[in-house]
Amino acid sequence: MAILEVKNLEKHFGKLKVLEDVSFSLEEGNALAIIGSSGSGKTTLLRCLNFLERPDKGEIIVRGEKLFDAGQAAADWEKDIRRKRLHFGMVFQSFNLFPQYTALENVTLAEKLLAQERPDFKQHKKAIYEEINEHGLALLEQMGLSQRKEHYPHQLSGGQQQRVAIARALALKPDILCFDEPTSALDPELTGEVLKVIRGLADQNTTMIIVTHEMSFARDVADYLVFMDEGVIVEQGKPREVIDHPREERTKQFLSRYTQG
Fold it and tell me: Which of 110, 112, 82, 116 shows the shortest CA–CA distance to 97?
């Protein structure tokens, strides 16, 4: 069974239809790459999956549980939205770290906030926080940033900030890790740092959705690829098949423009 099923998803902003009849599935342990021009709906799709936007139609199913159904009342959809978001870890284009917190504090913040809801929190607060900090340190070490744990975002390079953001997204052990063009704000050297981390996660069979403009990276790392244009999925399949041998004219035009650019 697929870990994620998206069925006939649609999203409108006024009269503008940003997503139209978007359907795909993702197997556990696989990486899905989404490519397309600016304005094709890629980021809106991720925001719908993370419940930062409410779709107008369709279904989102994770591990067989229907997290979103267009027929569900908005109030019912919103009442447990935080629980639904826990299925997804989000890494944004521009890091979105809290500037007043250190690298370690950024990674552990969400886990500590959730811990406060535990019935044994007051009794075991110190031990709980120590365990969370150990977990956060392990994630920073995984990102090659254990020596930067006390640094604030302004003391870190863009690549380091993005690696802290990845550690933060992993902290709550999401089912699916989502990347929204994670290297678009970085120069080539720092881009390599971040792509190396994502490659490592792929080698560990982390389930991921990656919106990217890095075609060679998508071809080499992703298990499946989706090309979007004007809010619809134009073509999807194995990355090498879609990128090297596109069938649809719109895919060919996009890849041609991209190569020329």
Answer: 110
Distance CA 44, CA 50 (A): 10
200: how many CB neighbours lie within 10 A of its CB?
A: 13
- Strands 65-69, 57-62: parallel, antiparallel or unpaired by DSSP? antiparallel
Parallel, antiparallel or unpaired: strands 16-26 and 31-36: unpaired
CA atoms within 13 A on the CB side of 252: 5
CA distance 81 to 34: 25
Task: Specify whether the CB–CB gap between 42 and 18 falls below 8 A.
Answer: no
SS3 34: strand
Q: Which two tokens stand for residue 148?
A: 């930067």
| pLDDT tens digits, one per residue of 99-127 | 999 999 999 999 999 999 989 999 999 99
Model confidence, pTM? 0.92
